[in-house]
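Encode chain A's predicted structure.
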Amino acid sequence: CTCTGGFWGPACSKYCPGKTPKGGSSCNSHGTCAQSTGICTCHASTTLGYFVEEQCNYCRQDYASGTCKIACPSTTSDGICNGRGSCYNGACTGCTARNTDSSLFICGNGCDKFASDCFNFSHSCPTGTWGASCTQQCPIAGPSSDPCSGIGVCNVDSGECICPSGYSGSACHLTCPKNPSTGISCSNRGSCPDASTVPDGELLVCSCVTGYGGDACETECPGGAAAPCNNRGTCTSRYATCECTLGWGGAACELECPGGNAAPCGFNGECQVDASCLCYSDATQGYYAGTCLLYTSDAADEEDSVDLGGRRIIKKKKKKK
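Encoded structure for chain A:
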């Protein structure tokens, strides 16, 4: 039999990939189905496009586009976008420097331009100088003797350093805290302050998004990022610890204080971090014990008294005969 309509097999009774009893097309109309095996051979030409996968339903990576016909910028040695970004419709985005690159500023349609080539300056000066006559020196600070610490780009029009993400300061010499495991500044869960707000020599501190804390926003708040501190307190950005609202305690504000949220410790003491009560015990505020909920005014001063679950009870004295 010569199979048609998206079928294969000796009796043309089997569906080709992409074809189903409810519809669809053989190899999604982007390839040819072998009648003996039912395997799709996907199109691979500038006319028909470049497709992959069992059903020919995805573009080949180097032709990622709406039609699978537009080639991505690539090189034989470094691959698509020179190994520095992702491609769609013939253009690279998200260009990121590789470990071997000399600059952290990467740009260009193929992620193939570096440093000052990524900016449209009015002047063109030798490295380390700026101004109309290129006689002024670019900022130098910190341990490095290189302009902009060899990390940023000197604006040859204004003389200011343009710092890449994760760096700040007049010469890009201040570093934002990095996740100790990934090396990513602020763990991509926060932001570093603008250089103008941080005096030279001071450390930069990440401002974390809700649900995370730590120097580099590397720690999830107790209770989880979706409901930090169980929505009963505030997670500190610097230390990722909970400051619980009145009536709650525990590392994640998961414990209710005695007396409940409405009257923690009966307002006769202070609820501690572990949700236990530290009762008042003085003549001004009164004498309480246990959960601070009950009180007898004359018991506090009695030496001959006992504590029964939060109550100070005077022992009954025997009458003298």
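The chain has a mean pLDDT of 86.
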